[in-house]
Design brief:
- By secondary structure, the chain is α/β, with parallel strands linked by helices.
- The chain has one domain: Uracil-DNA glycosylase-like domain (Uracil-DNA Glycosylase, subunit E).
- Helix content is about 45%, strand content about 10%.
- It has ten helices and six strands; from the N terminus they run H-H-E-E-H-H-E-H-E-H-H-E-E-H-H-H.
- It has a six-stranded mixed β-sheet with strand order 1-3-2-4-6-5, with helices on both faces.
- The longest helix is centred in the middle third of the chain and has 18 residues.
- The chain starts with a helix and ends in an 11-residue tail after the last helix.
- The C terminus is likely disordered.
């Protein structure tokens, strides 16, 4: 992605959204209705990452609307949170036709946007929703059934994979498991800071040092 350094230069979510604009960087622009950037608190402690917008999200331009969004609201309420207190984004910002899996070239274009969203929000905990987002964030081929509810760490952040709420709409047996996963999320959010944990201020300072010391040249995306 040729404009990756410019993505990293965006200092707010609003600036990043403005820079993305009416994105035409990959063929998904020809089939989408709306680009779905993300929604929620720009300083959220908890960030959700899904795969890509679905039909309702594509029509409304907002992640997690419709039945899956209603279930997500119920899950959040079960741990004392509101949608406005978390941040929600997807790996892809545009809906793939027929809800197919993202293609490598689509991810290549979109991943820097997600990386910058994570850097700007700077969450303590990331909840990956479903197989694709979990494999993308954790760089693993293991499935969500094996990984769900477990605590992982990536670049100083806690990562908890959980089922995608949409999965529970098709398989009702997953609803109880989802509520269990959200209790796990609550427990992770309530965990005391450990000596090895990196605080938001420390991450921000590290990013500033890297930015100041960076030399002109080709940039390679790094995971969060």
């Amino acid at each position: 992605m040729m404009d990756h350094p410019r993505v990293q230069a965006c200092e707010t979510l609003e600036e990043l959204r403005s820079y993305i604009g009416d994105c035409q960087r990959c063929p998904l622009a020809r089939t989408r209705t709306n680009l779905v950037f993300g929604v929620g608190s720009p300083r959220a402690r908890l960030m959700f990452i899904g795969e890509a917008p679905g039909r309702n999200e594509d029509l409304q331009g907002e992640p997690f609307v419709g039945a899956a969004g209603k279930l997500l609201d119920e899950l959040l309420a079960s741990i004392g949170l509101d949608r406005s207190e978390v941040y929600i984004a997807n790996v892809l910002k545009c809906r793939p036709p027929g809800n197919r899996d993202p293609l490598p070239e689509e991810m290549e274009q979109c991943t820097p946007f997600l990386e910058q969203q994570v850097r700007l929000v700077d969450p303590e905990v990331i909840a990956t929703l479903g197989n694709f987002a979990t494999r993308h964030v954790l760089k693993t081929q293991a499935g969500i059934t094996r990984l769900r509810g477990r605590l992982f760490r990536s670049a100083g952040r806690k990562v908890v994979p959980i089922y995608h709420p949409a999965a529970a709409l098709y398989d009702r047996t997953k609803q109880d498991v989802l509520f269990e996963d959200f209790q796990r999320l609550k427990a992770v959010l309530e965990m005391p800071a450990e000596s090895g944990d990196v605080s938001g201020a420390q991450r921000t300072e590290a990013r500033t040092r890297r930015s100041e010391s960076a030399q002109p040249g080709p940039e390679q995306p790094t995971l969060f």
